[in-house]
Recover the amino acids of this structure.
């Protein structure tokens, strides 16, 4: 029996995570308090993203100095993620906030 393919291939998850942090207003991705928010792959984890059924949860750190509305940032995050992961529902969470230097 061959292993089932990953619902989100590792290279796609890594690419999405790298692109998310380039969105103005996103200071980073959050793995949660105990590191529980991550996609797990052999010898690698992509923090800040999780998948449950057909829903991708994205946990972000908000950049307070960006001067952008949270709603606009979330829309940009959803747009980028939907393009890379079509057919999945995208939930965006702002888990923390910081001022960038």
């Amino acid at each position: 029996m061959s292993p089932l393919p990953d619902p989100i291939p590792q290279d796609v998850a890594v690419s999405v995570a790298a692109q998310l942090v380039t969105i103005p207003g996103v200071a980073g991705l959050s793995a949660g308090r105990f590191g529980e928010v991550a996609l797990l792959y052999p010898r690698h984890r992509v923090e800040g993203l999780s998948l449950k059924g057909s829903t991708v949860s994205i946990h972000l750190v908000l950049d307070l100095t960006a001067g952008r509305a949270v709603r606009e940032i979330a829309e940009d995050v959803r747009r980028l993620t939907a393009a890379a992961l079509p057919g999945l529902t995208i939930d965006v969470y702002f888990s923390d906030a910081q001022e960038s230097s």
User: Anything to note?
Assistant: The chain has one domain: 10-98. The domain at 10-98 is CATH 3.30.70.1350 (Alpha-Beta Plaits). The helical segments are 10-20, 70-84. Residues 70-84 form the longest helix (15 residues).
